[in-house]
Amino acid sequence: MKIILLPLFTFTFSLFTNLCGAQYKVILNFNDTNGGYPYLGGVTVSGSKVYRMTGQGGIYGNGCVFSMDTNGSNYKDILDFNGTNGANPSGSLLLSNGNLYGMTTYGGGGAKGCIFTIDTDGSGYKDLVDFNSFNGARPYGSLTRSGNKLYGMTSYGGTSGTGVIFSLDTDGSKYKVLLNLFGNSGSNPNGEVLVSGKKIYGMTFAGGTMAYGNVFSMDTNGTAFKNLISFNGVNGSFPDGDLTFIGGRLYGMTEQGGINAVGNIFCIDTSGTGFKDLYDFNFTDGAYPYGSLIQSGNLLYGMTTQGGLNSDGLIFSIDTSGSGYTDLWDFNGANGSTPYGTLTLSDNVFYGMAYYGGTAGYGVIFRSDGSVETGSNKLSVVSDQWSVYPNPGNGIFTILPGHPELVSTSLDIAVYNVFGEKVTVGMLKQVQHGCIIDISSQPAGIYFYRIISEGGQLIGDGKLIKE
User: What is the model's pTM?
Assistant: First the structure.
């Protein structure tokens, strides 16, 4: 009996009313040599280039800075951290006037992390500031630019050892601790600050009146600090990401807390009034978000590190009013797992990262794009263009194309287990007669197949169940 696979993954985009031909695609599998385990923040996209750091991997195992084309080609390792020039970066790179700015969590002259800049071609590296505990230590977030100033936070260091908020000029001069975090003012922030006019807004992971973190505002000169709200568990707890400013309101997520204790989405006025719990995760629809929200139109997009169909995390959308929550994409190991980061939207294309999974298990960078038309519907990869039988089966499966245009002289097919480990690879030749995939030697369970065209495009994927 033939079983036609229905689309395994769907992706709904609202920033376009309808996208046809859109496709989720892993554009880079980290393998330790080219980096591994990207943590917090998002990718930086400029024109046809993507820039990013990884927390580990590279030549010295301390992480690296790299560039590549937005289609995943022309990967270039432009900096390897060796301890002296920093180690184990997290967060996003800030691109400004042809220079990349970032922070490392460890390494540098004081071994507590550093702020650095480097040209996009890999030249001109400069260590701007070394953290030494007194001026902050171990930043886990990203930098924000306003005018000729950079702003950021460290998770540790300062007078109380629980982090600082700082500023400096883009040339590395005039470094200033604006605020030493402690107690009610919050502590141990992991994200970046939001600068709007003369105001800074941000979140801390812990501290506040209940020690579950808070949302704060202050002037850019370090005065007029205000605790806008302290999380108490019920209204959320332990936020890891950044705030998003929309129409005079601040939107964010907490990693834990909320009704189901696995995180929530909230908004609050910049004055500290009007707090609203927009959505409580419940694991089935996602759990433990570490990243931030991005906006397109009246929709917010984000990711969770766990939960969803395969418990590997998911991508979601939700209306800014809190209605219309939709699970858009479920990670499965092979296509990435546990995204500790934030989506990036550039030219109607979503980019993102997963911390684990992919072909080598060190994480992935992915994209999803399509063409704009009118109407409204969901997007899917072309899993429904292929049929598999018998499924479930004893480990020997036949895969057939559903449409003649999918036939090629040579197509690659790979099968992965739920941990993202490749268990078999083969060639689809004369696919009109089918291709036999044999995983009978593998243990019973769920597996995922991927079909790649001669040009390197993902043209089919789906699920195999071995009994």
Answer: 0.77
